[in-house]
Amino acid sequence: MQKWIMFSLFIVACLLGTGVLFQNISARQAELAKEATAGPSLKFNASNYKFEISGKAKAGEKVTLSLVNKEGLHAVEIAGTNVKLDNNTKTADFTFEKPGEYEVICALPCGPGHAEMRAKFVVE
C-alpha cells in the first residue's frame, strides 16, 4: 500500500514539474517573439561593475531601451538625457535627437566598483 502511495506521489510530482518547465519555455518563446518583431532597440546588460550594451540606435528614430540585471541590482542613467531605467521601469522608448557618443552610468549604488560602472555607446 505504501509503495503505491509513494509511486503515485512521484508520478504527480513529475507531471507538475513537466508542466512548470513547459510553462516557462512558452513564456520565454513569447518574449523572444516580441523582441523579434520590435523595432530598433538598445539592451543594457548589467552585471557586477560593468555594462554590456547590444543593439543600435539612429538619431531621430524611436528606440526601445531595456535593462537586464544579470548580477546584482543596478539602475541605468544616460548622461545628457532624461532616461532612467531601474527595476520598476525596465524598458522605455526614447528618440535620440543628435548623433554622437552617449555615456551610461549606474544610478544605484551597487558596491565598491560602483563609481567605475560606466559604458559608452554611439548613436549614428
- Order of the strands making up the biggest sheet: 2-1-3-6
The portion of residues forming beta strands comes to 35-45%
Oligomer: single chain
Shape label? elongated
Structural class: alpha+beta
Rg calc: 21 Å
CATH class of the largest domain: Mainly Beta
| N/C terminus separation | 72 Å
Mean pLDDT: 84
Count of DSSP helices?
1
Tell me the number of structural domains. Answer: 2
Order of H and E elements:
HEEEEEEEE
- Tell me the total number of β-strands: 8
Which parts are unreliable, with pLDDT below 50 for 5 consecutive residues or more?
none
State the helical fraction: 25-40%
CATH H level, superfamily name of the largest domain = Cupredoxins -  blue copper proteins
Under the CATH scheme, which architecture of the largest domain would be assigned?
A: Sandwich
| CATH fold-type name of the largest domain | Immunoglobulin-like
